[in-house]
Amino acid sequence: MRWGYLVVGLAILVPIVIAIAGVAHLWDIGGGNRGPITLPRGGTLNVGGNEENETVACNDGRLTLSAVNSTVSVTGHCASLRMSGFDNHVSIENADTVEVSGYSNAITHTTCNDGKLTLSGYNNAFSVGGHCASLTVSNYGNRVQVDSIDIITVNNYGNRFSVTGHCGSLKVSAYDNQVQVDSADTIDVSGYSNTVTYHSGSPKITQSGYDVTVKQG
User: Fold this and answer.
1) Percent of the chain at pLDDT above 70?
2) For residue 36, what pLDDT is reported?
3) How far is residue 114 from each of residues 12, 42, 170, 189, measured CA to CA in Å?
């Protein structure tokens, strides 16, 4: 299956675009494994495909990826990356914001660099390196490993988290979530059957609900 992508660049292609925005739109169709796709600097790209093996150079742009059973390498820096689809393996070098709404994807984010992460999909595996500003999880069954982060908010069930470094604020609700963190400033757990384990430090702990456990270990 061939890939379609929409590039919004800074060049001017038609007079009407000059009049309303000064931004050009180029629609192109290409095949898989044909070499890297490159965004114009600061541009916008929509990519979709099935069973592809692709490299996308983000070039400070905004990337939307909708794929199925594909392997995608996103190089360079993205201002934003939005991802949907399923059964994909995606590596991201660096992005300010990452939003995942698909399911059963394996995602590696190499350098978070104070980025913001949003998981509204389910059954995704997300591995993140570097320090992140925030992670918000609003769906179930996700598995997340992150080095360090300022804020984690979990408001759905059956998620598993590991923070190998420090977390500023951790808030967990709903049920059947398990979080392991090296250290944290504040831990707020509600709902039921949620467990948070911290390794070191003296976090401020707030607990409510039932069968909720916050422990050092």
Assistant:
1) 84
2) 85
3) 34, 19, 16, 24
